[in-house]
Amino acid sequence: MMNTGLVYYTQWKMTEDQTPLTLLAFRGKHRYIGLGPEFNNRWLIKKKTPLVLTFRYFFETGNHVATQGNALFFALTVAIPSKH
User: Fold this and answer.
1) 2-42, pLDDT tens digit by residue?
2) Residue 40 CA: distances (Å) to CA of 2, 9, 12, 28, 81
3) Which domains are delineated in the chain?
4) Per-residue pLDDT tens for 65-76?
5) Which of 33, 37, 45, 67 would bridge with 62, disulfide CB 3.0–4.6 Å?
6) How far is Cα 68 from Cα 81, in angstroms, rounded to an integer?
7) Listing from the earlier edge strand, what are the strands of the sheet with 49-60?
8) Residue 14 CA: distances (Å) to CA of 17, 23, 37, 58, 59
9) What pTM did the predictor assign?
10) Cα distance between residue 46 and residue 30, in whole Å
């Protein structure tokens, strides 16, 4: 079984920094936006143990008063069944 979709994140800072030593380029209200594809794939190991592999890639865009860069995310999930 494979799932595909669009993932996103966003973050806004509601107040400006009040630190006097903050550089002028980094004063203001921060904003971060990222979106990209996600793929999940599920396999069965030993007929009962599901294994899920997740891949996400975020393209950052529209960042304000912050550095900007893309992010790659891998996750491996193994669900161990209970022995009831």
Assistant:
1) 899 999 988 887 777 666 776 666 666 777 889 999 999 98
2) 6, 18, 28, 37, 20
3) 2-78 (2.20.200)
4) 667 789 999 999
5) 33
6) 41
7) 2-12, 31-45, 49-60, 71-78
8) 10, 19, 28, 23, 23
9) 0.65
10) 48
